[in-house]
Amino acid sequence: MPAKTAFVLGGGGLLGAVEVGMLRALLERGITPDLVLGTSIGAINGAMLAHDPTLEVVERMTSLWRASTLAREIYGTSPLRTVRRAVSSGTHVYDSAPIKQLMRDELGDAHFSDLKVPFQVCAASIERSAEHWFSEGPVVEAVVASAAVPGLLPPAKVGDEHFLDGGIVNSIPVGRAAALGATRIFVLQVGRIDRPLTVPSKPWEVARVSFEIARRHRFVREMAELPDDVEAHVLPTAGTSSRDDSLMAHRDFAGVEDKIEATYLASLIHLDRLGIGTRP
Question: Model's pTM, two decimal places?
């Protein structure tokens, strides 16, 4: 029986661009998903993939990232407007409307049932203090909820419930993929799990380090708990560094194309070493 292949796309802000390089390598080697799971920026990339699981969508995603359209739509607001919104809202500095419109431009009013590949999105429920998985209903609403980074974007309301970024509760959901029957999992992560953490020395570093400990702990635990009959492949990143973890890194649009290309090449080498996929 063929393996049920899952692509797990994790969170990571602007570093989500590297997932496009990974997707290009996988699809060029003839590796396609039977299931796509996404969190935060991984939900954005994953939704586009599930809508069109071909190299054509990778070209479209590459164009969006190359021009930094995706990043600028989310984080490109002028500093003055950012300050005004922070003061008036008290909770966030950017507006979620641009990202919602961008996703509508790509997906229209698609529901999960309309997608070509089964797709699920993780978000954090405020009212229930719980991990929540969207698998039905409008896709764009779910993606916006999953990408609602605390402090940067407002909580997203879906129905009578409010949601924040899925990375809070499950940043790289490999366990979910296995629970849904995947026997082969490709993990598309942005590289932060590979970098050593240091003791924070500034107030804003405390939250970042705390979040990294929580997300890495869960990822390592879930990888260790995968059943013996499940193979998991963590694709490598390239071109990223500790600079990408700085306070204002979410506004640093430079080098996006280089990160995509470097990660694409690293992923090809990785797949070839493992003997996975077929050369075109």
Answer: 0.87
